[in-house]
Amino acid sequence: MAKKITDKVTWVGKVDWELTTFHGDELSTHRGSSYNAYLVRDQKVALIDTVWKPYDREFVSRLKQEIDLKDIDYIIMNHNEIDHSGSLVELMREIPDVPIYCTAKGEAIIRGHYHQDWNFVNVKTGDTLSLGENTLTFIEATMLHWPDTMFTYLSGENILFSNDGFGQHFASESLFDDKVDMCEVMYEAEKYYANILNPFSMMAKKKVADLLAMNLPINLICPSHGVIWRKNIPLIIEKYQQWADAYQTDQVTIVYDTMWQSTRLMAQAIADGIHAACPDTTVMLMNAAHDDKNDILTQMFRSKAVLVGSPTVNNGFTYAIAGILEMAKGLKFKKKKAAAFGSYGWSGEASKLITEHLQKAGFEIVNDGIRTLWVPDCDALKQAREYGEAFAAAL
Ligand code: FEO
Fold this sequence. Notes:
Blueprint: E1 3-4, E2 9-11, E3 14-16, E4 21-22, E5 27-28, E6 33-35, E7 38-41, E8 45-48, H1 56-66, E9 74-76, H2 82-85, H3 88-92, E10 100-102, H4 104-114, E11 120-122, E12 128-130, E13 135-140, E14 150-154, E15 159-163, H5 182-197, H6 201-213, E16 220-223, H7 233-243, E17 251-256, H8 262-277, E18 282-287, H9 293-301, E19 305-309, H10 319-331, E20 337-344, H11 350-360, E21 364-365, E22 370-373, H12 378-394
Parallel strand pairs: 8-9, 9-10, 10-11, 15-16, 17-18, 17-19, 19-20, 20-21, 20-22
Antiparallel strand pairs: 1-2, 2-7, 3-6, 4-5, 7-8, 12-13, 13-14, 14-15
Helix pairs in contact: 5-7, 5-9, 6-7, 8-12, 10-11
MU-OXO-diiron binds near residues 145 and 225.
């Protein structure tokens, strides 16, 4: 059902309560998501973004209940990943001549996805489109997180349509940030940033600075996923400034996998050592085989250091640890310290190989790590605890 946001703006998106993964299986979405599209009615009418393809017919059908499609003058596509552009084919079947405003990269992406010769109008930063009383201004946000991305600002209503920026995978019928649990929303916003936007932090930092320098009055930030920021706009902007700037808190995350509990015992002893040396530091232990990979990466994102442990198996490390290391490399975390640990029976390469992967992923290696032969006895656990103390002291 469409929902009125202001006198001129109506939410016409789709809340996806059933979504459990996104980008295939790359990102878990424990709280569902939404694909937010917005209808702006002035003397002219603009539709901003559409919804994910599986909901294309539902989207167009509901849109028809809200407006005669022939009354839509412009379609604005801020970003053309399929979760936002996926309903274009169904929509354009009905209104094939309506111009689509997007960046030049946006046009290329739409053409590459749907192979249609629609009426494209390319825009760049500073270009405007008058709707009558109010005006849309386009602001390119290249690589946040695709080459085509842009924001659109609506004057008068003072709304920033930010697409994926400031978004969260969070399903809610309530629409606004002050109507939902802020702890849940802020966690999902951070998880979204850590797992999707972090590789582009340099651009995010600059874009937030550019936006602030523009001194635009902003009453609402309307992202394409999750709730609309109304009450907590300064908070989410401040968080983006922090997250984009080699974010870390006083936390150490220990990520491990274990076959017969030896590496788990080492992880716990190392955690005990860190806690003994630095009682105020938050220490998180996460089992890579059991805990959600994206929650693990979110905890790594907020950490000043990580320890990664695996038993040696077949001259390497485990499948679960391999997945985390590969994903961490892609996310390009900055200024985080790291080391490796693990148990072994004979060849014992895991710690060395993990250290090499951490180094390639951009972590600052603290030391060569620690290994334990077979099951750790009291002496080995004492060594692991002392290793944790020394690791903490080195941070
Ligand atoms: Fe929500 Fe990058 O699409």
